[in-house]
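Task 17 of the worksheet. Students: predict the tertiary structure of the chain below and write it out as structure tokens. Keep your answer in the requested format; marks are given for formatting as well as content.
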Amino acid sequence: MSISPPQALRQKVNGLDPRRPEHAVETVQLILDEARAQRTSDIHLNPTHDRLEIWFRIDGTLHRVAEIAPAQSSAVVARLKVLAGLLTYQTETPQEGRLSAAPGEPEVRLSTMPTLHGERAVVRLFSEPTHHRRLGDLGLPDDVHAALDQLIHETSGLIVVAGPAGSGKTTTLYATLRELAAAPTYERRSLISLEDPIESAVDGVSQTQIHTASGLNLSAAIRAALRQDPEVIAI
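Model answer:
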């Protein structure tokens, strides 16, 4: 009888020896590898009074996939913080960072927050660059695809992409930008995006990273972009 991926991950995590110095490193690697294999958008590490629960968000739905004993939970979160270049000793304030990735690999972000039972961590895994590149790759119904394709080629107006976490908002925005950037030269338009963070490079789009610390907040970036003779601004 076959076992489900969550059951398989739970067995692998439980099979690791917590006495080994490499336990936290091996646990985090198992979780990240399985999350990528399952096309997970978010990994939740949620501390409770007696364990650290691991949840995967897959196609917008959360699934509990493993538990870690309290004695090892802080080390697992600390390992993620090391990979993201965060301060492991700072556990009372929220932190955000990016996990190092090889060139060409999708970005992985980490967010931590203190809770009653310890640090909560959420890992966001972005789609691989080869997936969902154009509108035709999104799997939209034909009528929705046709309507969206018509709307993005209008010369005025506003399109709002909204939805819950993991529903594909960013994926849809990038696909529409690539669609516009791939237009024939005589139909090419001036495309600017304002992002926080820039998750994927798109040829033909001038992408700007919001950097509040230096004064480049969203309102300042919009004012600057409007002076750049844009025809499309994606935020």
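Marker's comment: The first strand starts at residue 42 and ends at 47. The mean pLDDT is 88.
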